[in-house]
Amino acid sequence: MEVVWKMLWGSLVWLSIMVQFFLLSHFAMKYPVRNIRSKITGGKSSHVVKLIVDKNQVEMNNGIVKVILSRPYGNVRGITYQGVENLLDSSLDRDDRGYWDCSWEDVNGKNGEVFQVITQKNNQVEVSFKTTWKRSDPLPALNVDKRYVMLSGSSGFYAYAIYERFKGWPGMFLWETRIVFKLSHRFQYLAISDSRQRLMPTSADRGRGQSLAYPEAVMLKNPSNSKFKGEVDDKYQYSSETKDDSLHGWISLIKGIGFWIITPSHEFRTAGPLKQDLTCHMFMSKHYTGVPLNVTFENGEPWKKVFGPVFIHLNSVSNRTKAISLWDDAKQQG
Q1: Which residues, in sequence order, are CB contacts of 149 under 8 Å at separation 6+?
Q2: C-alpha distances out from residue 275 to 36, 137, 239, 285, 286, Å
Q3: Residues 6 or more apart from 97 whose CB is under 8 A from it?
Q4: Is 220 in contact with 228 (CB distance < 8 Å)?
Q5: For 205-250, how does the pLDDT look when each residue is reduced to its tens digit (9 = 90+)?
Q6: CA–CA distance, 139 with 291 (Å, rounded to integer)
Q7: Distinct helix (H) and strand (E) counts, the chain
Q8: How many other CB atoms are there within 10 angstroms of residue 160's CB atom?
């Protein structure tokens, strides 16, 4: 009896497998598998990463994004994506559109002096723009090596910088460093978190506003969007704690394009996860604390630190009425 039962059970299992195979084959023929692509696009091209270097600028292009950098300064002059020639503000001086900002003793600067190709392969390009301090130079006694990386199939590019001092160098302090991108007027919608998103007044709206107690605060008097009339616009309204600033960016509702700064780790930032700061790609600053958070170096003190990397991610949507959904897509990149 046991032998008969085992034979019967084996036959049932075999029959079940055959039925499932038949059904799968039938539906595969009737409903062939389709390559379903998201309506939100970022990348996925297998295009070789191209590097073009000339006397005054450097171009990185992976077939999805093209980035133009000044040589030897390493400023971001242009970002081309989805048929838009430049996502940055072309009305500005070309070296004032995207740059690293290093502030010490109320001075800004540190442009690159020497350009170098670090990596050049079909699937990856990394370039360096380095300034090396010499004793004949004024302060700060600091080497700054700005790096940009582009990968094949990636809808964006990476940026990081290596700051370094050597033993015996004179003392100094840093109070701020950041990476800056000044976007074109096409970008009107700011997104910081799921609950902190809104249309923003333009710089022209602010220019027509009433200055308040300090320069950053302006009451909007004659804005292009009448809904903003009477509002106070102030960059400090958009601050957040470091732990909550892994992603922020802007959306062009006109073009259906998102421009995002993604910070995968906050370990390189000063003052810990509860430090409050501006959501403008700030890596270290004394905002909300003052002088105690200046990074101070004694005479002769060596130091080396990597700031970043951050990922500048671009995405787009074909249906521009769904442009705000680009925020959710950007969150999936983190």
Answers
A1: 119, 124, 125, 126, 157, 158, 159, 160, 309
A2: 42, 33, 10, 10, 10
A3: 75, 76, 77, 78, 86, 88, 89, 90, 181, 182
A4: yes
A5: 999 999 999 989 999 999 999 999 999 999 999 999 989 999 999 9
A6: 19
A7: 3, 25
A8: 19
